[in-house]
Amino acid sequence: MRALILNGPNLNRLGKREPDAYGTFTLAELEQELEQFAYANDIKLTCSQSNHEGEIIDWLQQAERQSFDGVVLNAGAYTHTSIAIRDAIASIQVPVIEVHISNVHKREEFRHHSYLAPVVEGQITGFGKDVYFLGLHALLLRNQRG
Q: How confident is the model at residue 134 (pLDDT cuts 50, 70, 90)?
């Protein structure tokens, strides 16, 4: 199975940004743990991060062209603002799992709405960095079932 972990704006600041909400782990540490999980589960993993909406859209479209089996996406604040990312997800045949480190429903009201929710396979929110592993596991199960 081939999977893409795609992180949006400000997630490059993990470990420094609001540790009460996001924890003290860095993006590099998270990606290293994800690569170990992927290796143990025979997943070919690609990890990307961008603060730019258009680049995230490009990677989503490339996921289809490059025959990825799924995407685990933390779109960060773009979740609540980007119709363009929503449309990109809707336009591809690759399943996308939306994840959020913090429980967005316990935070500011503007974070309660996801433009992505209607077009993703599912959402996982509030379990810290485990949301990424749960997302990969969901893609594994989906892939096994066909």
A: very high
Residue 30's nearest CA partner among 53, 12, 3, 52 is 12
pTM of the predicted structure, to 2 decimals: 0.94
Determine whether 132 is an active site residue: no
Q: What is the pLDDT of residues 82-103, one digit of tens each?
A: 999 999 999 999 999 999 998 8
Query: Active site includes 100?
Result: yes
**Which CATH number fits the domain 2-145, given the four candidates 3.90.1680.10, 3.30.1540.20, 3.40.605.10, 3.40.50.9100?**
3.40.50.9100
Residue 80 among known ligand-binding residues: yes
Is the predicted pLDDT of residue 4 greater than 90, yes or no? Answer: yes
Helix (H, G, I), strand (E, B) or coil at 30: helix
Active-site choice (78, 100, 115, 132): 100
Distance CA 33, CA 94 (A): 24
Catalytic residue among 22, 78, 115, 132: 22
Q: Please check if 82 is assigned to a binding site.
A: no
